[in-house]
Design goal:
809 residues, alpha+beta, twelve-stranded mixed β-sheet
């Protein structure tokens, strides 16, 4: 310990004596360690930290197994059948969001809050109990059950002042009185936040084919996920035999997956790629600091020789150098941790809403601190190995002679090798960033099927007993649209159940005369001007008109994807669709009167789904009631100028129609489109930043090596120039050496990128993971940077005075 303490004190004095070297090394290490710590903090919170429920490994996600699809929605009949027929789960529950939220009254002024529906066993599956009151009963989770609600702890404290007497009191949700039966524990989280939770009120007689439920189950004690999967194979076979027409889109079975894996499945590849990318940044930083250490080792060669001559062993010298390296890395680690704190705050602010599950849990804990410490120690050992290995190869006889350059060749080769590694790693990072830039550019070039410019959107939730029929809601929308159309600058206005690039609403749709054609299909409830507002194109037939009233013949418009899926050999204008069968309620027959272009719904990179549009006023009551369980009605207003400038006037006008209905989620359609590519923008930005850091470090590395070469060869350059060499000859010599290193690094980097970029193929759109243009462009970019980094010291070499150089050393 005494020797170690001596090494630490001496190493600290060495770092203080060379503040320039120390500052550059610390900044370089801080970038590498800080970036790694920031990304690991996200990975730890999202992928590694167990869910905050008792025995979370027993919670499983369950959904239909369809080849090539990751969609996890489950229909109500399937959920009920799976719940009642399985032998592996002690509890199975379903949940879904309540559109965009609910109108809450009671206490202070009405407000729009987030909500969720759950079945009676939801809290049993999670093994969570309310801190006040109780959970839901099976009677409450039935079609005729009492209207009850459970509040989040945050809402209870904010709106109801944290009074225990809230249990048993009534609050108004969407105009309907609900009795509060419980309050959730503080900090309770499930998927997306919810301030109000109400019973699902499942219907055992339901035949609703809309796949809108998320289903979870808690395994019985001692039962494994594999055993549950085998059990559900039997359940699927029973369901298939009983309801063959309710299988959905090549459904082959039932998937069972740990809930944490299911929750993070989509974002896991991205986080692992980012973790690998920052690992490359750290390796580049290590190579740079190792080069700095080699430069310093050259200056300390005589010191090491004296130590050895005085009796120090090779082990003692190596330990001293490794101690200095680790000490430098620890200082860089502290700076990196401070940088990571800022970086994590920036990251969480950059993360698009809903993109990364468990984002609210991102933060530092013991595991992150241990990771930072280990990263710093390992980093210090890695970059200290280079000078340590050189130290043991010192020739004492030559090193003790003043002016000897012995050993420079060996160090030069190692420094060159490190530069090659830097260039190769930087190229891999930059190619990844380039592919994501191409992906983002390709997405922006996709035709969404509508014109997003000059459209104002917002939502209103006319729910409750005052709006419990289609006629009542249609009357509200009619009056609201009249008010909006009277505003200056409004060209057209419409209402829809779903805006593009947003929520989905799929219901069972059957083609008349084809009983085997019933499929879960995207259905949109719209008012007549919707297609004009969105500037969609009519391909056949006609659009909806004001004459399509409740008393008129029900009509429907389908999109091209629906025609392609169902009417390849028939005219769509001769077809009739059956929509609205729920439980014992019969379907309503709609005559197809038009075909419109496809419109992107699930994202610009996804194919447009087969969609049926029906006039809102002709929507069956049971379809309207089903729809408002999943979606909140949206307004779309086309304006002649800036759409957001009309938001205040729109709010004011709608309050005159019904002062109890708040206007929420006011955005322009351009903002919605921008938000739809936020995931790709986030990926591109982060990997682009890491690539840029790698490029700068690689340029610094090349510059450092070439400066070192010029310094080592000053006498040689002087002799060449004294013998008649021109400045251009020297320039070619130095630049050629730098470009050779860059070329070797580019070749190695291309091979590595060709292998590694395949891992990010799921993040790409309309660009190959081995896109030749991207590879070529990045290679030329790196070559250009290497040329500049080599040219600067080369120019300095051309200005060497031969007389001074010949007296060098």
């Amino acid at each position: 310990m005494e020797t170690l303490w001596q090494d630490l004190r001496y190493g600290l004095r060495i770092l203080i004596k060379r503040p320039g070297f120390t500052a550059v090394a610390v900044v370089t290490l801080a970038l590498g360690i800080g970036a790694n710590t920031a990304i690991f903090t996200v990975v730890n919170a999202v992928l590694l930290r167990p869910l905050s429920y008792p025995e979370p490994e027993r919670i499983m996600a369950i959904w239909p197994d369809r080849p090539g699809s990751s969609f996890q929605g489950v229909s109500e009949p399937k959920f009920i059948f799976w719940r009642d027929q399985n032998q592996s789960f002690e509890a199975v529950a379903a949940t879904q969001g309540i559109g965009s939220g609910v109108n809450l009254s009671g206490g202070d002024e009405p407000e729009f809050v987030s909500g969720r529906r759950v079945t009676a066993d939801f809290f049993r599956v999670l093994s969570v109990s309310p801190v006040l009151g109780r959970g839901f009963t099976k009677e409450e989770d039935s079609p005729g059950g009492e209207r009850v609600a459970i509040l989040s702890s945050e809402l209870w404290r904010r709106r109801f002042w944290g009074k225990p007497a809230i249990v048993g009191q009534a609050v108004s949700l969407n105009g309907e009185a609900h009795t509060v039966v419980g309050v959730l524990p503080p900090g309770f989280q499930f998927a997306s936040p919810a301030n109000v939770i109400v019973p699902m009120r499942t219907n055992p007689a339901s035949r609703d084919e809309g796949h809108n439920y998320t289903v979870l189950g808690r395994l019985k004690s001692g039962v494994t996920g594999a055993q549950a999967a085998e059990d559900l194979k039997l359940v699927f076979a029973k369901f298939k035999a009983a309801y063959p027409r309710m299988l959905w889109q090549r459904e082959e079975g039932i998937r069972v997956q740990p809930y944490l894996e299911s929750l993070t499945a989509e974002v896991r590849p991205l986080l692992l790629i980012l973790l690998g990318a920052v690992g490359f940044v750290l390796l580049i930083a290590c190579a740079n600091v190792a080069n700095l250490q080699l430069t310093r080792a050259a200056a300390r060669q005589r010191e090491m020789a004296v130590r050895l001559a005085l009796g120090a062993g090779w082990g003692r010298i190596v330990r001293q150098l490794l101690t200095e390296g680790v000490l430098l890395a620890l200082v860089g680690g502290v700076a990196g941790l401070l940088l990571a704190i800022w970086g994590v705050n920036l990251l969480t602010a950059m993360i698009p809403e809903g993109m990364i599950p468990r984002a609210v849990e991102i933060g530092f804990d013991r595991r992150v601190l241990v990771f930072t410490l280990l990263t710093a120690v390992v980093t210090g050992l890695i970059f200290a190995l280079a000078p340590a290995l050189q130290a043991v190869r010192v020739d004492l006889n030559h090193a003790l002679k003043e002016g000897s350059g012995k050993g420079a060749t060996g160090r030069g080769k190692l420094r060159s090798a490190l530069v090659v590694v830097e260039v190769a790693l930087s190229l891999v990072l930059l190619v990844g960033a380039g592919l994501l830039i191409r992906t983002f550019s390709n997405l922006l070039g996709v035709d969404p099927g509508f014109d997003p410019h000059h459209i104002l959107t917002f939502q209103v939730a006319p729910n409750g007993e005052r709006y419990d029929t289609t006629a009542k809601q249609a009357d509200y929308f009619r009056r609201a649209l009249e008010k909006i159309r009277s505003l200056p600058g409004v060209e057209a206005a419409a209402v829809t159940s779903n805006l593009p690039l947003g929520q989905w609403l799929n219901l069972g749709v059957e083609i008349a005369g084809r009983p085997d054609s019933s499929q879960s299909t995207e259905v949109r409830l719209v008012t007549p001007e919707y297609f004009r507002v969105m500037k969609m194109k009519l391909r056949q037939g006609r659009e909806f008109t004001e004459g399509d009233t409740e008393a008129a013949e029900p009509v429907a418009i389908v999109n091209e994807a629906y025609v392609r899926r169902n009417f390849q050999n028939a005219s769509p204008m001769e077809q009739r669709l059956l929509i609205g069968r729920t439980g014992r309620q019969p379907s309503k027959v709609f005559q197809v009167v038009g075909v419109v272009n496809n419109l992107k719904q699930f994202g610009l990179a996804s194919s447009a789904p087969a969609t049926v549009f029906i006039p809102f006023v002709q929507t069956p009551d049971q379809v309207m009631l089903t729809a408002r369980r999943f979606v909140t009605m949206k307004f779309a207003v086309r304006t002649s100028g800036d759409p957001l400038s009309l938001s205040a006037a729109v709010r004011r006008e709608l309050l005159t129609v019904d002062p109890l209905l708040p206007v929420t989620d006011v955005r322009s359609m351009e903002q919605i489109v921008s938000r739809s590519v936020a995931f790709e923008r986030f990926n591109m930005t982060l990997l682009g930043v890491f690539g840029a850091i790698g490029l700068v470090l690689a340029a610094v590395g090349i510059y450092g090596v070439m400066s070192y070469v010029v310094a080592q060869q000053t006498r040689e350059i002087g002799i060449r120039m004294a013998l008649g060499a021109r400045g251009s000859d020297v320039l070619k010599l130095v630049v050629g050496h730098g470009m050779l290193l860059a070329l070797i690094g580019v070749i190695i980097g291309l091979a590595a990128a060709f292998a590694l970029t395949r891992l990010m193929s799921t993040l790409l759109f309309r660009v190959s993971a081995t896109d030749p243009m991207t590879f070529a462009t990045i290679s030329l970019l790196l070559a250009g940077v290497a040329l500049v980094a080599s040219y600067i010291p080369a120019r300095r070499a051309t200005k060497v005075d031969p007389m001074i150089a010949l007296r060098y050393e």
